[in-house]
Design goal:
Elements (H helix, E strand, L loop, with lengths): L1 H26 L4 H10 L5 H23 L7 H17 L5 H13 L3 H29 L7 E4 L2 E4 H25 L2 H13 L9 H25 L6 H26 L9 H15 L10 H11 L5 H30 L3 H16 L1
Antiparallel strand pairs: 1-2
Helix pairs in contact: 1-12, 2-13, 3-4, 3-6, 3-10, 3-13, 4-5, 4-13, 4-14, 5-6, 5-14, 6-7, 6-9, 6-10, 6-11, 8-9, 10-11, 11-12, 12-13
Length: 366
């Protein structure tokens, strides 16, 4: 445990350094005195509906995860909701996005559901999020105009209309490849081939005894087949067209609520006048940025994505910085408080859940 804590601290320090660099890039030309004055002009009454809309996305995420878990085990709504909120809270507090691993660890501890089965459902959730976000991005980018002559420089990289279209094309390709890999993985013949390859790998250790190689091969065969079958069961929802349709509707609701949360906050910000479609596009661009590895809470990289996403639509940098910082703060802090409340209700220790999730992966791989 002590060694694990040292890794967490080291990762956190590296992340803080990375975040600090990202914040510097975003704010190096922003006069902080004026930024502080601008933030004071924000009508904070708009923060209340904005925050409520943001928190409501987790209500929808809880329902979606409950549906995705159904082929593995039927659980109640709140039984699914609390791990979802706790997981997002852990992502805000610990590095490495350990919250994604904490969810299956929580269900394993409470319901003895195999870790790898639940981990696969978390991956399925991310697929629904990415595919839905890409579809919305394609529709929105077809309905708004970005000045072809507008270009921004970020850390030596040029960002313009062609850059965004290139990001869209590559993300679509990545999504198609990911879906193809998952559907191939769900085929029994493919899983058997993967299992045979894994069990053959110990024979590469020519410098060991034949008895040791055979023992390791048999052990890997049993463990790999069990884990592969568990993962396939976690992807089972993708075999049901009705459940796929419902999950996509819920995923679209999640993103619509996120867009509304941001757009509502804009009403309280002076100097920011963009349409709902432009606000939605700014959030999508922000999401592309926070997909990158970052520190807990996405501090720094969130600001980079938000500021440059808004500047694309003509929002001045100071106003973009003030809006992005305010939106980020009131997205993260209420979520952390809600996660703490959920952990108190369920008896889950936030820090232990995050740390023990990595230990559980190590156990399943043995």
């Amino acid at each position: 445990m002590e060694k694990q804590n040292r890794k967490i601290i080291l990762s956190l320090l590296i992340g803080i350094a990375f975040s600090g660099g990202a914040i510097y890039i975003s704010f190096r030309n922003v006069p902080f005195a004026q930024l502080s004055d601008y933030v004071k002009t924000i009508n904070f009454w708009w923060i209340i509906p904005s925050t409520l809309l943001a928190l409501s996305t987790h209500l929808v995420r809880g329902l979606r995860w409950k549906i995705i878990l159904r082929p593995i085990k039927k659980i109640g709504y709140w039984h699914a909701f609390h791990p979802v909120v706790i997981a997002f809270t852990i992502n805000c507090l610990l590095p490495g996005r350990l919250g994604e691993l904490a969810r299956p660890a929580i269900l394993y501890k409470k319901d003895k559901i195999e870790f790898s089965k639940v981990l696969a459902t978390v991956a399925v959730e991310r697929i629904f999020d990415i595919v839905t976000l890409l579809c919305i991005f394609i529709v929105i980018m077809g309905g708004i105009r970005i000045d072809p002559s507008l270009s921004l420089t970020l850390n030596g990289y040029l960002i313009n209309r062609d850059t965004l279209l290139n990001i869209r094309s590559k993300t679509i390709l990545a999504g198609i490849i990911l879906l193809g890999v998952i559907f191939m993985f769900m085929l029994p013949l493919v899983r058997k081939a993967i299992g045979r390859f894994i069990s053959w790998m110990p024979h590469l250790l020519f410098f060991t005894t034949s008895h040791f190689r055979q023992h390791m091969s048999e052990r890997l065969h049993l463990r790999s087949n069990a884990i592969l079958d568990n993962l396939a069961m976690g992807f089972e929802v993708l075999m049901n067209p009705n459940m796929i349709f419902v999950c996509f509707l819920l995923s679209a609701s999640v993103w619509l609520l996120n867009f509304c949360s941001f757009y509502v906050l804009i009403f309280g910000c002076k100097g920011v006048s963009i349409s709902f479609l432009q606000a939605s596009a700014s959030i999508i661009i922000l999401c592309f940025f926070i997909m990158l590895p970052s520190v807990p809470g996405y501090w720094g990289i969130w600001e980079v994505g938000g500021i440059y996403g808004l500047m694309i639509f003509g929002v001045p940098k100071m106003e973009a910085a003030g809006l992005t910082l305010t939106f980020h703060f009131f997205q993260i802090i209420p979520l952390i408080l809600l996660g703490i409340f959920s952990s108190w209700l369920t008896g889950v220790n936030l820090m232990q859940a995050g740390l023990h999730s990595q230990e559980k992966i190590s156990e399943e791989s043995l």
